Amino acid sequence: MKSYLNSLLIVLPLALIVAPSLAWGGDAAAGAIIFNANCASCHGVSGKGDGPVGAALTPAPRDFTIGDFSFDPDDNGTKGEDSDLRAVIKNGAMKFGGSPLMAPWPTLSDGQVGDIIAHIRSLKAEDGAEESAAE
Predict the structure, then answer these.
(1) Distance between CA 61 and CA 55 in Å, rounded?
(2) How far is C-alpha 118 from the chain's CA centre?
(3) Is 25-134 assigned to CATH 3.40.1350.10?
(4) Average of pLDDT values for 95-99?
């Protein structure tokens, strides 16, 4: 019994660390649908920041195909991590010193935001794959 409890005390904290990161993993295909409905008017369907509304905005919307991000809401020294993107999507960019034109989306569920982040990440990967194929 004591061995069982010791094992549980070791495994449980590890599960609490790993489980949230697994729960935040998103579905890029589902994220594309949500992105196209909510984000593409500014960021463009391709994610290059060239949506029909985005063309009139200053500053221009972020180009996700580059994969360069400006904010570090969790202040850990690394910009553009999933947790950073999650904070900007849910709270808007203005909260972190960015443009008020990137509005908050508090009505999106954590799952939907995770799916959007997965889609945003896929935009960079697809762009890099196209460049490699062209060389």
Answers:
(1) 8
(2) 6
(3) no
(4) 95
